[in-house]
């Protein structure tokens, strides 16, 4: 059976892994290679490296570390942040990344999704969506790496989920912003709504605080993977313990 | 002495394969030179992206006949494995024809999103457990998959995987083998498979 994926996310800023609360107030948690190695050894199923400063500052991710990471990692990893063109993507994938994740640039230029999918195949193209509830509707937010520039795009999240799939997205990471960093659990309701529209793999992001939160999002929202950062970086949850807890509830995981 | 040639099929993620081979302490040459391929002890055909694109790159490089007539161990990975078959439903592509059968798109059953992405299990019978390609591996071991097309199980299937339907995860016939998963991204199990191939 296909295993549910446990995915630590390493938010990268200026060459270091950082973590903020509700996307603000970032603190350094460690070096990129050191954390990549640690998660590989602990049994993470995949890693995401997200350059949170890339899109807001209108510059591309510093990619010198991608190759260094690719040399030591024997699990898949995805690079997000500042990939705005087929050429950007070609470079990141050529350095050894498995997948690329596009967020703000896809909102600015939706045609990019189709161009990337045609060139590399849908399986390489992950669309990241930052979503927040406003008056009972889910809306897509942009430039969430920088609190000063974060804005509501006025796009409804469910519409955007449909559109990115039609354009060739191979996977969706839904980050529920209200839950991000506060460790009160994934937004099951929103993820369930998106899951129903999603014929590609869906990854939950935002809100993991305890092993039960992972179990709940797999059992109730039916997502394919769950992404988290602070609970792993801080050691609050150790991946081997988490996987044992999930397996004990008959959730399929890779040992 | 192992002389591994990796066919430069133009796929974007060849670097990760090279790094995995490096980690095994084996040196490899990335090439489109038919002479280098023929002189190698082992050849890997990687592939990412659309089958038609990959085939047309092999044609442009004049490598179709070379690959078809190799006699040393050949390993196709992911789309590289799919190209070993007669044809693929993806873009209705004529492939290398080294293995019998046609590669098909996943049916897209409810509860089974396509692409099939993630860690899934190899399934093989005890009768195949003694195959040198499976040395050190057990039925039930996880490998990392990323694909929308797959070869149905058939006479060349060495190990299956199930995702709504069974498909060929590992195939072998004569000097030709194929892995639908990415051994270079499948942690210890993937390294084991690559090592087994390089010892053939």
UniProtKB/TrEMBL annotation, chain A:
Superkingdom as given in the UniProt entry: Bacteria
EC id: 4.3.2.10
Protein's cellular compartments: Cytoplasm
Reaction equation(s) it catalyzes: 5-[(5-phospho-1-deoxy-D-ribulos-1-ylimino)methylamino]-1-(5-phospho-beta-D-ribosyl)imidazole-4-carboxamide + L-glutamine = D-erythro-1-(imidazol-4-yl)glycerol 3-phosphate + 5-amino-1-(5-phospho-beta-D-ribosyl)imidazole-4-carboxamide + L-glutamate + H(+)
Classification via InterPro entries: Aldolase_TIM, His_biosynth, HisF, IGPS_HisA/HisF, RibuloseP-bd_barrel
Gene3D superfamilies according to UniProt: Aldolase class I
UniProt GO cellular component terms: cytoplasm
UniProt keyword terms in alphabetical order: Amino-acid biosynthesis, Cytoplasm, Histidine biosynthesis, Lyase
Pathway the protein takes part in: Amino-acid biosynthesis; L-histidine biosynthesis; L-histidine from 5-phospho-alpha-D-ribose 1-diphosphate: step 5/9
Alphabetized NCBIfam families for the sequence: hisF (TIGR00735)
Function noted in UniProt: IGPS catalyzes the conversion of PRFAR and glutamine to IGP, AICAR and glutamate. The HisF subunit catalyzes the cyclization activity that produces IGP and AICAR from PRFAR using the ammonia provided by the HisH subunit.
Protein name: Imidazole glycerol phosphate synthase subunit HisF
Native organism: Steroidobacter denitrificans
Gene expressing this chain: hisF
UniProtKB/TrEMBL annotation, chain B:
CDD domains: GATase1_IGP_Synthase (cd01748)
Gene3D superfamilies, alphabetized: 3.40.50.880
Cellular component, GO annotation: cytoplasm
Classification via InterPro entries: Class_I_gatase-like, GATASE, Imidazole-glycPsynth_HisH
A GO molecular-function descriptor: imidazoleglycerol-phosphate synthase activity
Record keyword Lyase present: yes
Protein's GO biological process: L-histidine biosynthetic process
Catalytic activity, EC: 4.3.2.10, 3.5.1.2
Keyword Lyase: yes
Associated pathway: Amino-acid biosynthesis; L-histidine biosynthesis; L-histidine from 5-phospho-alpha-D-ribose 1-diphosphate: step 5/9
Entry keywords, A to Z: Amino-acid biosynthesis, Cytoplasm, Glutamine amidotransferase, Glycosyltransferase, Histidine biosynthesis, Hydrolase, Lyase, Transferase
Record: active site: 78, 182, 184
NCBIfam families the record matches: IMP_synth_hisH (TIGR01855)
Its job: IGPS catalyzes the conversion of PRFAR and glutamine to IGP, AICAR and glutamate. The HisH subunit catalyzes the hydrolysis of glutamine to glutamate and ammonia as part of the synthesis of IGP and AICAR. The resulting ammonia molecule is channeled to the active site of HisF.
Subunit architecture: Heterodimer of HisH and HisF.
UniProt-listed HAMAP family: HisH (MF_00278)
Protein name: Imidazole glycerol phosphate synthase subunit HisH
Gene name of the encoded protein: hisH
């Amino acid at each position: 059976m296909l295993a549910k994926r446990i995915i630590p996310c390493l938010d990268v800023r200026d060459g270091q892994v950082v973590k903020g609360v509700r996307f603000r107030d970032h603190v350094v948690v460690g070096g990129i290679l050191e954390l990549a190695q640690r998660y590989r050894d602990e049994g993470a199923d995949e890693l995401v490296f997200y350059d949170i400063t890339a899109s807001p500052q209108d510059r591309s991710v510093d990619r010198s570390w991608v190759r260094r990471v690719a040399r030591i990692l024997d699990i898949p990893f995805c690079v997000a942040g500042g990939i705005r063109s087929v050429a950007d993507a070609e470079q990141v994938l050529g350095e050894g990344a498995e997948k690329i994740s596009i967020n703000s640039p896809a909102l600015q230029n939706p045609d990019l999704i189709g161009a990337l999918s045609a060139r590399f195949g849908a399986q390489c193209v992950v669309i990241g969506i930052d979503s927040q509830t406003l008056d009972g509707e889910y809306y897509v937010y942009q430039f969430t790496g920088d609190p000063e520039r974060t804005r509501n795009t006025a796009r409804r999240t469910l519409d955007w989920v449909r559109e990115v799939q039609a354009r060739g997205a191979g996977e969706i990471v839904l980050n529920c912003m209200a839950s991000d960093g506060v460790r009160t659990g994934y937004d099951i309701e929103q993820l369930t709504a998106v899951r129903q529209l999603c014929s590609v793999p869906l990854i939950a992001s935002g809100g993991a605080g305890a092993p039960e939160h992972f179990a709940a999002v797999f059992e109730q929202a039916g997502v394919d993977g769950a992404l988290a950062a602070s609970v792993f970086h801080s050691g609050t949850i150790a991946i081997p313990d988490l996987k044992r807890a999930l397996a004990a509830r008959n959730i399929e995981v890779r040992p | 002495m192992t002389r591994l040639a990796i066919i430069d099929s133009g796929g974007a993620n060849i670097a990760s394969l090279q790094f995995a081979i490096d980690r095994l302490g084996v040196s490899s040459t990335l090439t489109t030179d038919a002479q280098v391929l023929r002189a190698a002890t082992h050849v890997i055909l990687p592939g990412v992206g659309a089958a038609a694109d990959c085939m047309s790159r092999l044609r442009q490089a004049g490598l179709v006949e070379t690959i078809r007539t190799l006699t040393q161990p050949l390993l196709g990975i992911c789309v590289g494995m799919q190209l070993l078959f007669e044809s693929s439903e993806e873009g209705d592509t004529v492939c290398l024809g080294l293995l019998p059968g046609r590669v098909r798109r996943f049916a897209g059953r409810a509860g089974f999103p396509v692409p099939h992405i993630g860690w899934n299990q190899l399934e093989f019978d005890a009768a195949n457990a003694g195959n040198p390609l499976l040395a050190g591996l057990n039925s039930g071991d996880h490998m990392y998959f990323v694909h929308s097309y797959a070869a149905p199980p058939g006479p060349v299937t060495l190990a299956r995987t199930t995702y709504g339907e069974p498909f060929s995860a590992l195939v072998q016939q004569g000097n030709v083998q194929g892995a639908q998963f990415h051994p270079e991204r499948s942690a210890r199990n993937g390294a084991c498979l690559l090592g087994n191939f390089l010892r053939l």
